[in-house]
Protein: Outer membrane efflux protein
Organism: Stigmatella aurantiaca
Amino acid sequence: MSALLLAAWMAAVPAATPISLEEVRAQGRKNTQALLSLLDATRSEQDVRLARAPLLPQLSFSTSAGGTYVGRERGIVLVQTGEGTFEQRAGETSPRDSGDFEISLNLSQLIYDRVRWKQLEQSGAVFEAAQGQAREQEDASELEAINRFFALYRTQATIRVLEATVQRSEEQLERALALFEAGRVGRGEELSARVNLGNDRINLLLRQAQLAQDRGQLAVWLARPGAEPLEAQAPESLLQPPLPTPSFELALAEARQRRPLLQALQQQVRAASLGKEVASAGYWPRLLAQGAYLRRGPEADAVFATPRLQNTVTGSVVLQWDLFTGLSTDAQLNQARATLRTSELNLAQTERELEAEVQRTLQLLVTQISAAQLASENRETAARSLALAEERFKAGAGSTLEVRDAQLKLTQAELTLLENRVNVETARFGLMRAMGTLSPGELK
């Protein structure tokens, strides 16, 4: 019955979609978090254009057509009392109306404004910082995708190890039955082998829940359908001996040069320094040129259809200097100084943390390589121990308990080797992330 249940489980597993580590790395850099970070960089790029806009010529056109109507009013009016003579008397004025038509073209050009120029430089530094943050997020997203990929691969490989364990338990049960029927062992050996097989099948079934969870986590991170049954393909690096590790000095120098986060914080310091210059620029005057062309009159024909009439052209150069602004410029300058100091402290702290991260990830990689080598040796020893126990059992000199103990040791050794070998790969990518070399150009 248990064999039928296991077969039913195998039949219920949907066909998997194979995915390679290279695909995971490429798709991980384009997941939702990475795309949101890129949108932040895009907004910062447009801020540069907005900061440049006031420095370019400003040209505007407007036209209007309107009129005024004034009704009868009580007041002093001129009354003709004779030929050529008038007299002011109280009376009512007649209704009157007038038109108001206008066409205007206004041009202004900023000649000098230190604030605007420094704001443009500052927005450029902020944009470069946003680009660095976007690259940092791409690296973080890719590393998370790599970790989820290897988590899925580890579960898949664990299931294969457990399947091999089930097969060995089935073979052990067959041997125990044959020896029992031949009268060479007691009934207890056959019952013990049957219980061991049942436990191994249970472990295999329970691992399927972990497989579904790991598949879903990887698919969601890659912005794929959450129910897609992904299957991690074995990376070539797992089939080869681990690569040698770089020295700490080389890794740290690489990290200081290429880590996007460090570059982003350096640009933030630059932006904060320019922010101080923007604030201090408030003490400087501004110079701009203005020009206007205006056509205005009470009749539409004169304004819109007779070019030789109603023409007015004006021009001026304006100097503006805020001599006293209630000490607001001084307050803004103090705020900018505090912001600059904050950025410098954050950069210094990140540099220290980066040094510790490089040392930690490098030491972890060295440790995992050594552990994987020991695990490989243990696996070979456990395999020889199981072969010896099975030979003794066949010869009637051993027991199911001895064989079971050797089987468990082999299974544990295989799982330990798998765990450590996967940890070597994740540690290697973690070091690449710390060094800033986790980028599309580094894909192999």
Q: What stands out?
A: The radius of gyration is 41 Å. Residues 63 and 103 are 4 Å apart (CA to CA). The chain has a mean pLDDT of 88. Strands lie at 17-19, 58-70, 74-82, 85-92, 96-112, 230-232, 286-297, 311-320.
